Amino acid sequence: MTNHSYYCCTEPTCTRAPLTQGSDGLTCPNGHFIPYAPGTDVPVFACEPEGANEYSQENAAEVHDNALRWVFNTFQTDEEGLRERLIARMGLKKGQRVLITGAGAGNDLPYLVRALSGRGDIYAQDIAKEMLLAGVSRYRTELAASGVGLHFSISDATNLPFADGFFDAAYHFGGINLFPDIAMGISEMNRVVKEGGKVVIGDEGLAPWLVNTELGRMLINNNSLYACSAPLAALPATARDVKLSWELCNCFYVIEFQASTEPLPVNIDVPHLGKRGGTIRSRYFGRLEGVDPALRDRIYEEAERRGMSRVAFLESALRASLDKD
Ligand SMILES: C[S@@+](CC[C@H](N)C(=O)[O-])C[C@H]1O[C@@H](n2cnc3c(N)ncnc32)[C@H](O)[C@@H]1O
Ligand SMILES: [Zn+2]
Q1: Same domain for 219 and 111?
Q2: Same domain (yes/no): 82, 136
Q3: Which candidate, 163, 167, 164, 152, places its Cα nearest to that of 2?
Q4: Beta strand 97-101 with 167-173: parallel, antiparallel or unpaired?
Q5: 258, 289, 316: which is the final residue of a domain?
Q6: Spacing, Cα 164 to ligand 2 middle (Å)
Q7: Which one of the ligands is nearest to 100 CA?
Q8: How far apart are the CA of 67 and the centre of ligand 1, in A?
Q9: Is there a domain that residue 270 lies in?
Q10: Is residue 156 in contact with ligand 1, taking CB distance under 6 Å?
Q11: I need a surface site. Which of 170, 191, 212, 310 has the fewest CB within 10 A?
């Protein structure tokens, strides 16, 4: 049986407690139980109800194969080349650990295996068991001799069963537009990737200059997802080295960034030279009540006469008046 010791509980009260493996599922120290999908050792943390959408119907993987063929024929793009290019953006190295969210029927798995040069681990997750289990049966045996470990879970990409910083890189292609909380999907990828590791995300979304063209209008009429724009505002405030580009005839956006949970190194205490003075911090947090405008003008004049910045003069005047009492 596969070793599942890396999975963590996704219940909010358990703060990613490590799970223990049993014969029919995984157990949390706080008593939660995560069963395996029937007849498999694939843990089910969260699952789309059967028939809820095109990915959770019985023949979902075949329907998805057809949809993919349509995409690659329409945009006259070679699937192999595209998947290789997108995966190459993570800069994976032999022996690394990579996450793929919304992995579907696993079409990216052979390319990820190749990018890891025969050693490492791939963790593929999807919320639709019909898609993910098709991926398991398509690729687990085929890729078993590759030297790369394959780990599957049925789970929600917006609440991942992994510890912080567990992965070297994370990848998603083709589903995030429909996540109920896109920012949370991106935040989770950022959380589980170690500091400086790459996150790559792509989905339908026309480049802005195509939206109001006839081609753009036809595409959006055909499938409203093409009206989506790259969810840049949903990136974590800590993201580094963000890059936005488009693939598939500029009809799919691709966002790439370096994961980080560290605040940006902005020094908000650098003094401004000149008339006004102060710093980013003092100007934002040190604002006082409104005063008589005539008094304000006298203060400004006096500061100028003394060759001080307004902030420096005000601070000294206020300190002096407090010290007097
Ligand atoms: C268009 S398919 C893409 C599959 C695959 N990435 C590919 O490139 O062929 C989108 C996938 O995203 C999955 N998905 C949607 N919402 C999800 C969520 N919250 N968590 C995980 N997977 C999700 C769907 O179940 C579906 O399998
Ligand atoms: Zn738990």
Answers
A1: yes
A2: yes
A3: 152
A4: parallel
A5: 258
A6: 16
A7: 1
A8: 13
A9: no
A10: yes
A11: 212
CA of 126 to the centre of ligand 1 (A): 6
The pLDDT value given to residue 262: 97
CA-nearest residue for atom 1, ligand 1, is: 174
Choosing from 131, 132, 201 the residue with most ligand 1 atoms within 8 A of its CB, the one to mutate for a pocket test is 131
d(C-alpha 11, C-alpha 13), whole Å: 6
Counting the structural domains of the chain, the total is 2
**C-beta 173 within 6 A of ligand 1:** yes
Residues of the chain under the 70 pLDDT cut: 1-2, 325
* Both tokens assigned to 52: 């809820």
Domain of 306 in residue numbering reads as: 280-324
DSSP string, 71-135: HHHHTT--HHHHHHHHHHTT---TT-EEEEES-TT-TTHHHHHHHTTT-EEEEEEES-HHHHHHH
Q: How many whole angstroms from 295 Cα to the centroid of ligand 1? A: 63
Q: Is residue 268 part of a domain?
A: no
Do 231 and 307 share a structural domain? no
The answer to whether 180 touches 149, Cβ cutoff 8 Å, is: no
Residues 124 and 233 occupy one common structural domain: yes
Q: Is residue 35 in a domain?
A: no
Q: Ligand 2 centre and the CA of 27: distance in Å?
A: 8
Verify that 65 and 105 share a domain, yes or no: yes
